[in-house]
Specification:
Elements: H1 2-67, H2 69-89, E1 92-94, E2 105-109, H3 116-127, E3 132-135, H4 138-141, H5 147-152, E4 155-156, H6 160-168, E5 172-175, H7 179-185, H8 199-207, E6 211-217, H9 219-222, E7 223-225, H10 230-240, E8 247-249, E9 256-259, H11 271-289, H12 296-306
Parallel strand pairs: 1-9, 2-5, 2-6, 3-4, 3-5
Antiparallel strand pairs: 6-9, 7-8
Helix pairs in contact: 1-2, 2-3, 6-8, 8-11
């Protein structure tokens, strides 16, 4: 009996230890099998981007580094950004022929939750050897550690004098009149929140350059600001002027940037009238190219199911 009882205790302890070990192994193996695929997916996408860069832009990158380190760095970043945009969003640029071959122009458009179109179009212009400057919010330009990158990528806080000078130098200038407010507070209905701003029209009139309205299809479906209350979101932004409202994304929907016809104005035109005309043209681009209200699920379905060769069954 004594031996049997001791054997029972030993076996019980062994099974208890084995159960605890199994529970521990199950917990960590579950974490491993959940996390590892994420890293593998990221790794494979990085390798795919590198392969596309090598296939499409190896000559440009090599020649740029031979000419200038910073040109090589800029073109390398642009090539990586271009590849990522093509893989993840199948990004397209429509109406690029509206850009003047020489001289400046002011691009004015709608601001998504994230300015992904600015990143991709900036990369496109760098690779096409066109100088594009993008006006960014002051908080981003003054963020610690980012000033050098902002300068290398030609991102500017956009004072009126600085914008006019860039346009007079023959640069293309890209601006979002709605700024951070539109980024955070607009929604899937693509409402312009420009608050009758006229600064961009004054810049174009003073520099005597055309204004090219633009809009990027599905930009609000690629990333979206999360607002539990529109009033609370507006209050938070007006009090802080910081992007403290959460943003979800980046969803692999297709993006198409549409550049409209250039608008030329007499330098004596009223800036208010110019701003109203441009606002109307941007709204027309939205109405023409965007299915409203926007839907993340619909655009994902269209890209990966309908455009992947499948069609909904008809009754």
């Amino acid at each position: 009996y004594y031996i049997t009882n001791n054997l029972r205790m030993v076996l019980s302890s062994m099974f208890s230890a084995l159960w605890e070990y199994s529970a521990w192994a199950a917990k960590w193996s579950t974490a491993f099998f959940l996390v590892t695929p994420i890293f593998l997916v990221i790794w494979f996408y990085l390798m795919s981007i590198a392969a596309h860069v090598y296939r499409w832009r190896k000559r440009e990158v090599y020649e740029a580094f031979n000419d200038s380190f910073w040109d090589g760095f800029r073109i390398s970043l642009a090539a990586i950004t271009e590849a990522q945009g093509k893989i993840w969003h199948n990004i397209e640029f429509k109406g690029v022929h509206h850009l003047p071959k020489k001289g400046g122009a002011l691009l004015v458009g709608y601001h998504g939750a994230l300015p992904l179109d600015a990143y991709y179009f900036l990369a496109h212009c760098v690779l096409e050897r066109r100088k594009l400057k993008v006006v960014v919010d002051k908080f981003l330009y003054n963020a610690p550690g980012l000033r050098l990158l902002m300068k290398v990528l030609n991102l500017t806080p956009g004072t009126i004098n600085g914008c006019v000078s860039a346009l007079n130098d023959g640069d293309i200038l890209m601006i979002y009149p709605g700024g951070l407010r539109e980024s955070l507070l607009s929604d899937e209905n693509y409402e312009l929140i420009w608050n009758a701003r006229q600064g961009f029209s004054r810049v174009a009139l003073e520099a005597d350059v055309p204004i090219i309205p633009f809009f990027t299809e599905n930009i609000r479906e690629a990333a979206r600001s999360v607002k539990f209350s529109a009033r609370l979101a507006s209050w938070l932004y007006e009090k802080t002027r910081l992007p403290i409202i959460p943003i979800i994304g980046i969803f692999p929907v297709e993006l198409k940037m549409h550049l409209g016809n250039p608008l030329n104005f007499d330098d004596e035109e009223d800036p208010k009238v110019v701003a109203e005309v441009v606002t109307k043209r941007v709204k027309q681009l939205i109405d023409t190219h965007q299915q409203l209200p926007g839907s993340i699920w619909r655009e994902l379905y269209k890209r990966f199911w309908v455009r992947g060769g499948h069609r909904p069954h008809s009754d």
